[in-house]
Here is the input.
Amino acid sequence: MKKITKAVILCTVKAVVKLNKLALKVKNSMTTNASTFPGTAALVTTLSNDQALFATYIANAKGNTTVKNQRDEQAAIVLADLQNLLSPVNNVAKGNTAIIALSGFPNSADPTPQSIPAKIVIKRIVDGPTTLSAKIYIESLKQPRLTYTVRTTTVAGAGPNDPSWRVVLTTTSMKKLIIPNLTHLQEIYVDICAGNAHGTGLFSDPMPFSA
Here is the structure.
């Protein structure tokens, strides 16, 4: 029996930037192509309102625990809004990838679509395998062929475009995120981003470390 191609979501609540981009794309596509998906106007309006609030939380979450928690809660709401739209889209599309594309959703016939990587989350930084080194643990983006760029600064509160940031490591393995040649007892701040053939994602929130 031939497998029917369906609209899918392919991201989680933890990938907030990717989730927001998908929600924005679906909102715009289904608004533009409303006649193709009758009966979805109320669901699209709900998604539109929830996505707008979600985007605001994402923009203001850095350094604010309260807003970050609101962002994470809103991510679950936006994901639920998208899930509510899958069924009506698939009922109309009936496996037609061109119709699925009009909704803004990716489809299951392309199980590993590539996009610009989401913002990385650093889980922890610990002493590395050699003296005066640091090993970085991150949450996996579950995407293949990524290149990771690690930067450091000694300036507390430095923004992502601050000139004090210095690239100290580039690697294609999340298991080799090790910064060597650190200065004893000097506090540094570390951030990291991932890139692929489609572009480079946002740098993570900085995390302090002292060797």
In short: Residues 65-93 form the longest helix (29 residues). Residues 158 and 164 are 8 Å apart (CA to CA).
